[in-house]
Amino acid sequence: MNDLAGKHIVLGLTGGIACYKAAELCRALIKEGASVQVVMTAAAEQFITPVTLQALSGRTVYSSQWDAREPSNMPHIKLSREADAILIAPCSADFMAKLLHGRADELLSLMCLARPIAQVALLLAPAMNREMWAHPATQRNVAQLMADGTTVFDVGSGDQACGETGDGRMLEPSELLEDVIAFFQPKSLLGQHVLVTAGPTYEAIDPVRGITNLSSGKMGFAIARAAREAGAEVTLVAGPVSLATPRGVARVDVISAQDMLQAVQDKAATATVFIATAAVADWRPAHAADHKIKKDGSGATPSLNFVENPDILATLAQSARGQSRALYCVGFAAESHDLLANAKAKRARKGVPLLVGNIGPATFGQDDNALLLIDESGAKELARASKLVLARKLIVEIAIRIKAGVRA
Ligand code: CTP
After folding, report:
1. Which ligand 1 atom sits closest to the C-alpha of 257?
2. C-alpha distances in angstroms, 170 versus 41, 123, 153?
3. Is 112 an active-site residue?
């Protein structure tokens, strides 16, 4: 992926043990296509040398406002105007206090103050001891910086370098990378609450066996991530899959179709969009045995009776219509053949405004996919691409339809 292609980021380091993570972050930003100019405070240089950051960024590091390399001798102007964003990682408590007061007594804070505020975003990744983070002065500063338009990323929680445990450590480089990528995505779903189902369900036969399918959950997880990036509040109801939860997404893990319906109904009251990507088992064994079913040595095979599972998508779409509630419902159709005809019929049967078709065997477990969008005006293809790219396109398509006032 090249999610940061064309973006130029000033990566500012201030004093903190998390400077060691900034080296990895610098690498990750570049791998994602960004160009990175590192600026360090004197305190940061106590923790990591400019040599490391120069080697990783491929650019000499700036640390003084008196740096004469710029012909104008004004690095704070030149460097801040080239940037799409200034990312301070780690951002110390002291540096936040400086930013709050608009102080500018060294290059990095000077650059933050001198940046064109409407064009160059300021992103902070705080890193400090838990007492420093929890202190009312720090929390007051965070609130005011946010009110001033600064983006302050979360802090991590856990063991701290000082030996204490709690909130305040800097997020991991991979988490910060996800947050930076999300920051640059268009906010087409601001104010929406998106509920997503993903993965397979597992229907127990006995305590050690069950029926499931090959859905990996990747498409649903990508959609949850894309919806979050677009500014929505997102709840992801996931069947049994081993995928990492996208940043900022609330996840509810479930096993069976009945659990999934219950979890979805619990969250549906505040949802404005429902996207059903889960490959829900159509049937479940009528009775799950309490104990493992054993062979009795006679060669006899157990006989299983099935009952149909609830249709989660149809149930939600119907109840929203019944309550005249604005819930935009999107179904998925995993087909093995005749995609257009089957997807059209499924859209009508499920009673949803948008049905997304894909060829099941060609997509289960894969990192890429191709989608066919069916709505009342016809069909539109989203050509083969990574699931995250397709998810972002689908979110844009959904946002357009919601804006146009289409509802379930
Ligand atoms: N779905 C659901 N609950 C079910 C079955 C399906 O919410 N019990 C949703 C899926 O998440 C998907 C859509 O309905 O969004 C279509 O699912 P699919 O399994 O492809 O279709 P079916 O309704 O099972 O139809 P068929 O078996 O005929 O293909």
Report:
1. 8
2. 17, 13, 9
3. no
CA of 229 to the centre of ligand 1 (A): 27
114 token code pair: 């001198």
Structure confidence by residue, pLDDT tens digits, 27-74: 999 999 999 999 999 999 999 999 999 999 999 999 999 988 888 888
> Regarding beta strands 368-375 and 378-386, do their DSSP bridges make them parallel or antiparallel, or are they unpaired?
antiparallel
pLDDT tens, residue by residue, 317-355: 999 988 888 899 999 998 888 889 999 999 999 999 999
| Structural domains of the chain ordered from first start | 8-184 (3.40.50.1950), 193-404 (3.40.50.10300)
Block residue for tokens 């990192």? 367
Distance CA 258, CA 35 (A): 48
User: What does the block give as tokens for 341?
Assistant: 């005809």
- Residue 119's CB: how many other CB atoms inside 10 A? 11
What does the pLDDT read at residue 365? 75
Q: Which pLDDT score, from 0 to 100, does residue 406 have?
A: 60
Atom of ligand 1 nearest to the CA of 277: 11
Ligand 1 cavity residues, CB under 6 Å: 197, 257, 276-278, 280, 282, 309, 311-313, 331-334, 346, 350
377 CA to middle of ligand 1, Å?
Answer: 22
